[in-house]
Design a protein that fits this description.
It contains 10 helices and 15 strands. By secondary structure, it is an alpha+beta fold. The chain has an 8-stranded mixed β-sheet, with helices on both faces. Strands 12-11-13-15-14 form a 5-stranded mixed β-sheet, with helices on both faces. A two-stranded antiparallel sheet has the order 1-2. It is globular, with a radius of gyration of 20 Å. The mean pLDDT is 91. Bound molecules: 1,6-di-O-phosphono-alpha-D-fructofuranose.
Length: 338
């Protein structure tokens, strides 16, 4: 029973027991689920970071509403990477930008949907946020789960430095049967919250960990299977090991599966056409690498370098990525780079 259902069980019991009987308050009523702001405050998270996360969570709620009510069609435009946009790409991007402006805490923000940084410098503006407002949007018309990915840095001087420099937090939302929001704060772990029926994100799992080995695999970019003998050997290894295939084509739900099960590996290597792979460092791979390292996992490129050590040369630069259970990622990347 998720915390959300329990929340209603408690609410109904509380109303029933206090209105008709003076029943003793059972133990579980004392532990009402924590809201994410309350939880983060208890964990000593900086108030400005909590405020930024509050605004991102607010934007996630509006994106969720738009997905369930919005137009899933294409708009005939392309994003800065030349990828066709759906209406929800454009709307989600605007919703997040609006929320970050309202926070007055950012200097500038970078979106996968925009060519350059957008200046939102407010009176207290110093933070930098990079985000993919709607990852997996090509899946929207299929009703498969999609997501949003966010990274928060202490300032906007991210170019020509390792991407981990100044990174304070990362988070992602999953728009599926349940709306969940996974948040990682530097040195304070990875935690999952769920949107309840009264519009509040409540804690469902604290201090998520990823085991070093796995029985699952999520093999992205299988074009590389036919082009790269090493990736063919890796994929054949997974099949020979009779691993369970868990791949949807959406990075966010595919990585969320690994966190939810506590183990797994997701791969998206380079191919002959995309020599740095498809996934973006700033908007997808670095935030996810941050989340997974806070959960005891690993995230490497196919040369064996740590994703978070990657030097940022361009806001839209791409990187191959192998992410998930630490020992599995290290062993597989060893096979790719040997
Ligand atoms: P879209 O946002 O265009 O749907 O791409 C999703 C994505 O960026 C990431 O979420 C997936 O892991 C990856 O692309 C899937 O790429 P392929 O379509 O090449 O499998």
């Amino acid at each position: 029973m998720t915390l959300n259902n329990r929340f209603y069980q408690e609410k109904c019991y509380k109303d029933f027991s206090t209105s008709y009987f003076s029943l003793p308050t059972p133990y579980f009523l004392m532990s009402a689920p924590l809201s994410f702001n309350h939880f983060l405050r208890e964990r000593g998270v900086d108030s400005n970071v909590r405020s930024l996360l509050y605004h991102l969570a607010r934007g996630v709620k509006y994106i969720n509403f738009s997905i369930r009510a919005g137009n899933t069609g294409k708009v005939g435009s392309e994003n800065s990477s030349g990828e066709e946009q759906v209406a929800l790409d454009v709307l989600a991007d605007q919703l997040i930008l609006d929320e970050l402006r309202k926070s007055e805490l950012c200097d500038c923000v970078a979106s996968e949907e925009q060519v350059a940084c957008t200046d939102v410098s407010g009176p207290r503006g110093k933070y930098f946020v990079a985000y993919d407002p709607l990852d997996g949007s090509s899946l929207i018309d299929t009703n498969l789960a999609v997501g949003s990915i966010f990274g928060i840095w202490e300032n906007s001087e991210v170019l020509e430095k390792p991407v981990e420099n100044g990174m304070l937090a990362a988070c992602f939302a999953v728009y599926g049967p349940r709306i969940t929001f996974v948040i990682s704060i530097k040195g304070k772990g990875t935690h999952e919250f769920e949107l309840n029926d009264v519009g509040e994100f409540i804690l469902t799992e604290a201090d998520i960990t990823v085991a070093p080995e796995t029985k699952y695999f999520a093999p992205g970019n299988l074009r590389a299977y036919a082009q790269d003998p090493k990736y063919k050997a890796v994929t054949d290894f997974w099949l020979a090991e009779q691993r369970k295939l868990r791949y949807s084509g959406g990075m966010v739900p595919d990585l969320n599966h690994i966190l939810a099960k506590g183990n797994g590996i997701f791969s998206y290597p380079a191919d002959n056409e995309n020599t740095n792979g498809k996934l973006r460092l700033l908007f997808e791979c670095a935030p996810m690498a941050f989340v997974f390292e806070e959960a005891g996992g690993a995230a490497l490129n196919q040369a064996g370098g740590r994703i978070l050590d990657t030097i940022v040369t361009d806001y839209h630069q791409r990187t191959p990525i192998f992410i998930g259970s630490k020992k599995e990622v290290e062993d597989i990347v060893q096979m790719m780079s040997s």
